[in-house]
Amino acid sequence: MADIFSTEKRRVIMSAIKGKGSALERHVAKILRKNGISFRSHPTRLPGKPDFVLPKSRRVVFVDSCFWHGCRYHGSIPKSNRVFWKQKIARNRDRDREINRQYRRLPWRVVRIWEHSLRAENGTAVEKALSAL
């Protein structure tokens, strides 16, 4: 099925997708605040641009969307320009694995929160996991 938007319109739509301050990140920040967990958003000195840093517990939190990070359950490849998207999402997944390896070498732990876990049951599982930090 062809895209309903022109190439130029699709480019504008995709470029408007924010890398910081997404609804998913705001949801996680709300959960962290609710549980009294101190954090910093988008620090610049740590590898991989984590969404949140929990300095006291030396953890970094990445909020991964199902589309951009290739969720095996909910990720999908757009029907147009499939080769590009397969490669793009594969690179994102490779980068995620490399970032995890980098943090394993440091005294930091990585917490990855998937979009679908925030949407399921209004994020109660994520809230329980984060409150345990």
UniProtKB/TrEMBL annotation:
Pfam families: Vsr. It comes from the Bacteria. Keywords: DNA damage, DNA repair, Endonuclease, Hydrolase, Nuclease. The keyword DNA damage applies. Gene3D superfamilies: VSR Endonuclease (3.40.960.10). InterPro entries: DNA_mismatch_endonuc_vsr, Restrct_endonuc-II-like. GO terms for molecular function: endonuclease activity; hydrolase activity. Its EC number is 3.1.-.-. It is an enzyme of class 3 (hydrolase). May nick specific sequences that contain T:G mispairs resulting from m5C-deamination. This is Very short patch repair endonuclease. It comes from Candidatus Magasanikbacteria bacterium GW2011_GWA2_42_32.
